[in-house]
Each structure stands twice: as C-alpha cells, then as structure tokens.
Specification:
Elements: H1 2-20, E1 47-51, E2 54-59, E3 70-78, E4 81-88, E5 102-107, H2 108-111, E6 118-121
Parallel strand pairs: 4-6
Antiparallel strand pairs: 1-2, 2-5, 3-4
Protein name: Lipoprotein
Keywords: Signal
Signal peptide: 1-28
Length: 127
Amino acid sequence: MKLNNALRLSIAAAGAALFLGGCVIVDADEHVRADWSGDRSYGELMGADVSNGIVTARVTSNGCTTKDFIGADVDKTGDNRFSVGFYRERQDYCEAYVPEGVELSWTFEELGIPQEAAVRIRNDISN
C-alpha cells in the first residue's frame, strides 16, 4: 500500500512539474515601444514646460528612459530667443508599463541658453 501511494505521489508531482514548468512567450509587437525614428526627427512629447530657467519634457518610456536617452537641438532664432527640439538618441528596451511617461528636465545652462532668454519647444505635444 505504501508503494502504491508513493507511486501515485510521484506521478502527481511529475504531472505538476510539467504543468507548472510551461513556457512564457512575450509578443513584442503587442508592447508599445518608447521609440522615435532614428533619424533625429523630433518625436512627439507627452508634455513640455519652460519656466524658471528649466526646460522640462515628458517623454514616452518603457521604464529605463533617462536624460542620457534624449538629445536636444538648440537653435538661436533671434535676439535672446531660442528653440529646442528633443530627439531620442537611445531606444528604451525595458518592459515596464509607464503610461504617463517620464518627466526629464534640463537647465538653460545645460542647454547653453542665456538665463533670461525666451524658449520655444519644436516638438509636437500630444494631448
């Protein structure tokens, strides 16, 4: 009788191992990537703000996007007037769900813009 119970228990354990040891497949096409085209075009921002000598951009993210992932083109457009266009330098291949994106900020000094300048963002902003 003990052998019979032991045999039943081993068969149940083997079946459970097969059932629980299944394979997980992730379909990458179903995951929205935080990417913009690789040709330095200015991707659409989720939001932007210019105030107190700081330029802030809300960008899409898959969980790893930092300022190191985003480049900025700064152009002087007139007397003490500048425009800034943000582009993605590196793709974010993380798999986190970040529907609100991430907010990244640059000081005017980081961007080479004088403190009292007027700044316009060139990217489209999604609403």
